[in-house]
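look at this:
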Amino acid sequence: MAKPRVKQSKIAKRQARNFYLYTAPWLIGFIILTLYPVLYSFYLMFTDMNLSGASHFVGLDNWIYAFTDDQLFVKAFVNTIKYVVIFVPTSLILAFFVALLLSRKVKGLGFFRTAFYIPYITSGVAVTILWGWIFQRDFGIINYVLSLVGIKGPNWLGDKNIAMISIVILSLWTIGNNIIIMLAGIQDIPTSYYESAQIDGAGFLRQTVNITLPLCTPTIYFNLIVTVIAAFQVFQQPLILTNGGPLNSTYTAAMHLYNNGFLYGKMGYASMMAWSMFAVIMVITIVTVSTSKYWVFYDD
């Protein structure tokens, strides 16, 4: 015997209608501005499409060209990995210690929190140009201060051996978001743990190593994944400061993607580079997630 159909109430119908009505702008925007470009770029990866829109299916020719004839493809990825290896650990360590200091009860704490966060929300172009002046070899602030103590400052942006380090120093100026997130993780640790440690005679250093650091690993884990993803897309700083030089020492994968797509008109090849960056980031993320059970500790 068939079950009788339950009529949907007017309230339920109105709620369903309102749900689709209110989410429609986001859904339409996501489909048109995100999902469709992603899927279309996957198709373009196997074509030789240019800016005119003309394209032909070329199969794996873009991948073959990247590893055989394009000398800058591997160079760009090596430079990017070098940047990631230097920047990510340094930023996480610096963010942890700055957040640890900000978690202490000191005067003017609100001012310091704001001061560390402002560079993150400031225009990236303005900050990069400012640091370009700071790194200037002849009249930059850094080399001027070094000259006061009798040290001749290096050519920060003109020496291929330290140009990438200069880019990393600039990027460390804008880790305010990591600091705020790390600070929230530290402040979320129950104070009862520290009180018990103090009763047992543990000092600040021991409390930091045995309590703060282990219980802050979930926050470090989150910052690690987000920072790695952002670091692989470094583009603005090397483009403005060095334009990839000197001798392509700061030429990154994102710059190579941009140049091929919008300067040389090789949209198919640029799509291949975008998906290759996605593949590298995905592999690193999967490894990080799969190994997190060995070093990420939760309060429960």
